[in-house]
Amino acid sequence: MKSLPYFCRGEVVRGFGRGSKELGIPTANFPVSVVEHLPADVSTGIYYGWACVDNGDIHKMVMSIGWNPYYKNTKKSMETHVIHTFKEDFYGQILSVVMVGYIRPERSYDSLEALIAAINNDIEEAKVQLEQPEHLKLQEDNFFKATLRTTSKTQATESTTSTSDTITNGH
Q1: Can you give the pTM of this predicted structure?
Q2: Are the C-beta atoms of residues 119 and 48 closer than 8 Å to each other?
Q3: Of 36, 79, 134, 158, which residue is the catalytic one?
Q4: R_g of the chain computed on alpha carbons
Q5: Annotated catalytic, 22?
Q6: How would DSSP label each residue in 99-124?
Q7: Residue 68 confidence (pLDDT)
């Protein structure tokens, strides 16, 4: 995919409420405005990369982009699982991510247990892939060093390149 690495940020919104409750794998959801601005060559599926909440620490992440066939969603979503244990929810805060690589297409599963096993495999794959030197360097990208303004909380910001402190606004 030509658009990778892909940088985006947006306010964390409430999703379907399944990540923590049903799956035991909490996810942070981007608003529709961020999902709608994905480049055309970013297909549905599972991605890995780096994420941070507001101006916090940068952590590994996996992200599902699509309709989640197991649940038969009718609305396309971007659900990020930050590979870190947070003390509390962070709805309303700004999530910044860089999608670095693609793991697999989205697919349906015969059981909830099979879905959970696949997600856990994706998490382990992300951990391994993100140790590659070319991926590790993106953890230090200036995109994550940009100061967030509270006035832009409802705006999505995206860019396919990040070589300075300037971030292109996707709107």
Answers
A1: 0.84
A2: no
A3: 79
A4: 15
A5: no
A6: EEEEEE-----SSHHHHHHHHHHHHH
A7: 80
